[in-house]
């Protein structure tokens, strides 16, 4: 799909297969709908007067064909609900309603005026959001089906505004974010027997080869052994698949400017290890590398947006298996930091791979470090499937991330993290245990990580509830790529 932006457009004079315009509650016309109504001698008004279509509720659509006085072959009316309630979220919903109505039509190019109506704080954010909404509604993952679904004929989507103002950069950014989300979803949806740590190396090497601004290095298990990453290795050694630590460096800013570091949990399958998980829905543990996938997607988008900042993406990739070399409950390992860990539950493996990655990134003198992980089932209990968990050792950074979530419609909620929770990690035999018991599981997981992040501003995103959907619509969501991209955009001041 190709995305364009068109300023100062007149909806009535566009050469396109379909023009998409909004109708509000009580049949109040949007600016573009009014243009069509005038040019067609009241055809929109007459259609609305029939009463079949109702803009009150929003997300409803009605297709009109070959109206006299209008150059577009089709007009798609979209119900917008109440004008003063048009949030970023409704804009997404109405845009997706339009895409769904067009999916089965023989439409290859479309001009859409819906974001023209955005009365949000940032029109740029609304434009980016409408592009990602289109891509989201069109996303399919057919790689492993012998009979592919028929692809919609939509090939080009133009965002048009009746007003002057150039939002072509925001449109391109939206397309870059959409591409990053797609890459992240494709990786996360890929099965565990394909998407291994070695596969993630291949994908990131290809990505790095596509830009002069990207460099890649990979730590093999022997390299990790040499620098004492005993915690990471205690997980990867349970599997025949070798663990990998991938470091992707994007040099968009001046040399020497402190980088933002993103660290992704890349457990390509989580069986739980010797503390084996129950069988129900265990297939969903192929999604346990979504943190890594979101880092790869975000680095892709960052490169496409050509942001003038330095960003480093680190992926801690391993498979958590109960092989004959796997850790056993009670085993004690020494992390790269020198701190010792008693592994009381081998299913709390995410923190074991992340803690060594978090120590490793100290060498980059980061401006800030954000780790992204499907870390705890407890986060789903706490926040459900709509909001990611945020925990941080730095209030300024936490606020930045919270606000970026609002801007991008990819929201987070901060949970507390203080010394009282730290006590739950006490071990009788080592510096700490890798679990803190049932109460506040998301918080004690973050407390564990916080012991390895004392030298820089750090935030942790627990995406266990938001990274994928279960049930009939099972699949990766692409989150939190929009949030991470928004953080980068804000950091780059563009
Ligand atoms: N990958 C899981 C967390 C998870 C579970 C995400 C279910 C999404 C759905 C993680 O490695 C894990 O197993 N965590 C344990 C921690 C516990 C042993 C302290 C959990 O949440 O049960
Ligand atoms: Mn686990
Ligand atoms: Zn896991």
Polypeptide structure, described:
The protein has 494 residues and is α/β, with parallel strands linked by helices. The protein folds into 2 domains: 161 residues, Leucine Aminopeptidase, subunit E, domain 1 (3-Layer(aba) Sandwich); 314 residues, Zn peptidases (Aminopeptidase). It is 35% helix and 21% strand. It contains 15 helices and 19 strands. Strands 7-8-10-9-13-17-14-15 form an 8-stranded mixed beta sheet, sandwiched between helices. Strands 1-6-5-2-4-3 form a 6-stranded mixed beta sheet, sandwiched between helices. Strands 11-12-16 form a 3-stranded mixed beta sheet, with helices on one face. Strand 18 and strand 19 form a beta hairpin. Helix 4 runs parallel beside helix 5 and helix 5 runs antiparallel to helix 9. The mean pLDDT is 97. The structure holds ligand BES, manganese (II) ion and zinc ion.
What features would you highlight for this structure?
494 residues; alpha/beta; Leucine Aminopeptidase, subunit E, domain 1; Aminopeptidase; 2 domains; eight-stranded mixed sheet; six-stranded mixed sheet; 15 helices; 19 strands; 35% helix; 21% strand; binds ligand BES; binds manganese (II) ion; binds zinc ion
